[in-house]
Task: inverse folding
């Protein structure tokens, strides 16, 4: 893949279009029947490009007056991989379209939940590219 600056491609606006802020509310509404029951907001962040890989992260940010407990987030990679509202497969397809033919996504993988702090947990998303 060419060495263009992917930071310019995956701006804050683009990331929010790919994964809108309201998607967390939709997820918790589907999960609990009430979006206000959710303990965190979900944001997509671009972390970089290396050796035919694009690195993203889902940032799980604690909501005010809620608890972002490890037991709530450690099982999420498996859930995120198949939940229709999170739609990781569709997200990966949209990212591939943004690459505009310069590379093709051959596979993707969600990593294990990482605890950055009591207010932030992260789920890595790696896209494997051909081209």
Result:
């Amino acid at each position: 893949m060419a060495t263009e600056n992917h930071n310019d491609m995956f701006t804050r606006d683009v990331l929010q279009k790919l994964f809108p802020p309201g998607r967390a509310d939709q997820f918790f509404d589907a999960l609990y029947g009430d979006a206000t029951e959710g303990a965190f907001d979900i944001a997509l962040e671009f972390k970089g490009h290396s050796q035919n890989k694009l690195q993203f992260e889902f940032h799980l940010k604690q909501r005010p007056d809620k608890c972002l407990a490890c037991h709530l987030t450690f099982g999420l990679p498996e859930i995120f991989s198949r939940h229709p509202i999170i739609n990781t497969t569709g997200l990966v397809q949209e990212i591939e379209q943004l690459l505009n033919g310069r590379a093709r996504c051959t596979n993707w993988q969600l990593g294990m939940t990482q605890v950055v702090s009591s207010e932030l947990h992260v789920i890595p998303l790696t896209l494997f590219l051909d081209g």
Remarks:
- The first helix runs from residue 6 to 9.
